[in-house]
Inverse folding.
């Protein structure tokens, strides 16, 4: 008889990774919303929503549209984490790992984008 080897990715490791990515992501989300609320005040003036290196400013909007980037990123982040949870329960560990890594990349790209937008607008 051959001995069955243990899988490289175990369920407990992925659940722990999902937990820490969820904590990290929600902390970053909350801090970004706090920074936006602190630096961007409601006003009648327009804000820069997108800046292109070749064309310069190519999208202007109102103050509340600054909150759309974190809202959309939160939806994608929670969606990735939720689908990863389903994949872990079905014992599809590699797709779950890819979704967890994708969720962390969504948060990191959001942090970079919001840092740039708040720096440009403040």
């Amino acid at each position: 008889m051959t001995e069955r080897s243990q899988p490289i990715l175990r369920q407990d490791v992925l659940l722990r990774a999902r937990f820490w990515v969820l904590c990290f992501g929600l902390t970053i989300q909350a801090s970004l919303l706090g920074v936006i609320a602190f630096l961007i005040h409601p006003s009648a003036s327009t804000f820069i929503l997108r800046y292109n290196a070749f064309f310069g400013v190519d999208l202007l909007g109102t103050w509340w549209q600054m909150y759309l980037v974190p809202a959309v990123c939160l939806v994608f982040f929670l969606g990735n984490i939720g689908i990863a949870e389903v994949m872990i329960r079905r014992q599809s560990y590699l797709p779950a790992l890819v979704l967890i890594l994708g969720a962390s990349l969504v948060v990191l790209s959001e942090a970079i984008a919001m840092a740039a937008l708040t720096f440009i607008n403040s």
Observations:
- The mean pLDDT is 88.
- The two ends are 69 Å apart (CA to CA).
- Helices lie at 11-39, 68-89, 93-121.
